[in-house]
Amino acid sequence: MKKILLFIALVFMLTPAFAQAKTVYVAQIEGSITSYTYDQFDSYISAAEEAHANALIITKDPPGRRGDAMQNIIQRIQTSKVPVIIYVYPQGAIAASAGTYIALGSHLIAMAPGTSIGACEPILGYSQNGSIIKAPEKTKNFYIAYIRSLAQASNRNESVAERFITEDLSLTPKEALKYNVIEVEAYDINDLIKKADGMETKLPVQGKYVKLDLKGAEIVYLHPTLKDQLISYITDPSVSYILLTLGIWALILGFLSPGWHVPETAGAVMIALAIIGLGYFGYRSAGLLLILLAMVFFIAEALTPTFGLFTVAGLVTFILGSILMFSGGGNVDYLVSSDVYKNLRIIIITVGVLLALFFAFGMAAVIRARRRKAQTGKEELVGMVGEVVEPLAPQGVIRIRGELWKAESKDKDEIPMGEKVRVVKMEGLKLIVVGLKKEEGGG
Predict the structure, then answer these.
(1) Is residue 262 within 8 Å of 286, Cβ to Cβ?
(2) 250-263: per-residue pLDDT in tens?
């Protein structure tokens, strides 16, 4: 009986300790919102769910881009088993475009001083002069209804949310608090946890509103994996484009100069990474086909020199394909912003010119050299002079052109080490030689 009572007492003593174990997970999202951003959100939310965390804080400063990815992210947040707090942090960060919708779809919004939220009018793309191409009224009305529904579901200010689209309105943290758009203004993570403790979520978690119990919680930081870092890097359109062109370049170089296999392998890896990155970002396949056609022109110039005809055709096709790859559809000229496109334009022209010069001169010279070597082969050794490094009796070893060769005296006589010999013919990998002294003596 005493043992049972002791066990019960021990359980009661330990239960509060277990009950007080609280955790808050913190993760950071960076870069443009693409379909991979959803994967990041899903990964971080799943980690917090598995740990039964009290809350997940996601600090973010991503510019908008993919509307479909944005909606998927919001759905994942709203089906989360733990409260998700979107924290616009650090100072200077913004929640704009798709980032505004994601914030309004979260259980709690916090902002750091010096940040802003709003300005999310939908756009289609960018014109050639860099100006924004706005979405048609039909699309705009859809997003107005969507952002109002997000604000309504979380009991946030619907009219101000609508003005984020109709007026491209942006708010400071104090203004956002005043107009009931956000719930917390916090200087850092610790300040946010302190102020959010005891607050009720603006959206239900698994069907019920949750009062946040964050006091004394352990903070667990989630860091991006190597895969996350890699994909975050290659989804940059400039990086993906350079990887694509260098990969094709290396692949062609490997095929035209067989035997080493390193260029082909490196090229295949770079092309695979580029297609993954462009797939998340978005590109036009017609542009990719034109780039491949340009490579065909460059190879044709290297194999059958046409005094620059194929080089010019390849350069023009390459530049047109590169521009088309990032162009939009309909009235949209470009998928990327004017700043990104300015950088891309410099990269496109530079890479195009380098490719043209390489295939017109460098690759053609390599192919011609390989052809000359194939015509002469090892027969070019006949007539050359070498030095005996292992006495020929009648077989031994000679050094010729810095290489060691098995050799045999033509007349089966012995030739000592250090003597000069001349190659008269080859038998397989063996050189048949005569001594220079014998030649000079007329023997």
Answers:
(1) no
(2) 887 777 666 567 88
Same domain, 26 and 9: yes
CA dihedral over 180, 186, 189, 194, signed as positive or negative: negative
Q: Indicate if 397 and 347 belong to the same structural domain.
A: no
Q: What does the DSSP 8-state code read for residue 217?
A: P
Tell me which range, 157-171, 311-325, 398-412, is most confidently predicted by mean pLDDT. 157-171
Residues 324, 437 within the same domain: no
List Cα–Cα distances, 197 to 55, 80, 131, 235, in angstroms: 10, 19, 44, 37
The string of DSSP codes covering 93-146 is -EEETHHHHHHHTSSEEEE-TT-EEE----EEEE-TTS-EEEPPHHHHHHHHHH
H/E run at residue 325 = helix 309-325
Q: What is the pLDDT of residues 347-358, one digit of tens each?
A: 887 877 877 777
Smallest CA-to-CA distance from 217 within 55, 379, 58 is with 55
Among the listed residues 32, 60, 80, 97, the single catalytic one is: 97
pLDDT tens digits for 188-225?
999 999 999 999 999 999 999 999 999 999 999 998 88
Is 46 annotated as catalytic? Answer: no
- Based on the residue annotation, tell me whether 425 is a catalytic residue of this protein: no
